[in-house]
Structure prediction request, 274 residues.
Amino acid sequence: MSLTVGTGPFGPHNSGTFNFDTGALKEHTLYLQESPKRIRTTFNGETVVDSRRAKLLHETKYLPVYYFPEEDVRTDLLVESEHATHCPFKGDASYRSVKVGDEVTEDAVWGYPEPLESSPIPADHIAFHWHAMDHWFEEDEEVFVHARDPYTRIDVLDSSRRVRVLVDGEVVAETVRPRLLLETGLPVRYYVPPEDVRMELLVPSGTRTQCPYKGDASYWSAEVGGGHVEDVAWSYPEPRRDAQRVGDHLCFLGEQVEFEIDGERHRSSASYFR
Prediction:
């Protein structure tokens, strides 16, 4: 997922080994870098930010966040707020709301006018809550859910591993042609072609999720052993570029899901991200 979440090197489930004592790392390691992309965001039909000088903040346990120089922001659309917060790693944050016409999104903008000396965030840069805005664009491509991390990579590999998927002890899928999706910071996901899934045991679910890298996911629940297990499988009917090769394949996850990989039994992979 990124450097700072999941199993990424600075994430809470770090799975690697450094050549130094990781106790030397700060609780919230901060890394700020310039972005080469033109970033825009809109609210109620107005462009609020249009910047070619955005900076991307990486912070342990958090997804990346764009910070913009105030010169690239329509500050005439911002309204002062009394809301304030304190971060022991960045300083005291002041907030503003965004007002366009009669529409207001409260406390959507924050910055650190007097950042701590150890913080890399410039005093004249501000950030926006992603979901407080209507649309986000990197160059001319709309981006969903959160800022995409330049250190995230997705590989989809053909495999001949024998994969069996069991839900409450019942085999619901078995294949020797899975596609393995490897995404930075996440466990390996095994995607099974629908022909190798017992689709008669699955029922469509109303659950939908979005991923900025893979697309919009649709879900299935399982009817096994006389019981109902909610949202045990998902797929990407129209995946984005990096995940196109898992289109319509199904992936399984959940507390009641077990895998046999080449005969070795595994519990379902960690579920902190799909």
In short: The first strand starts at residue 30 and ends at 34.
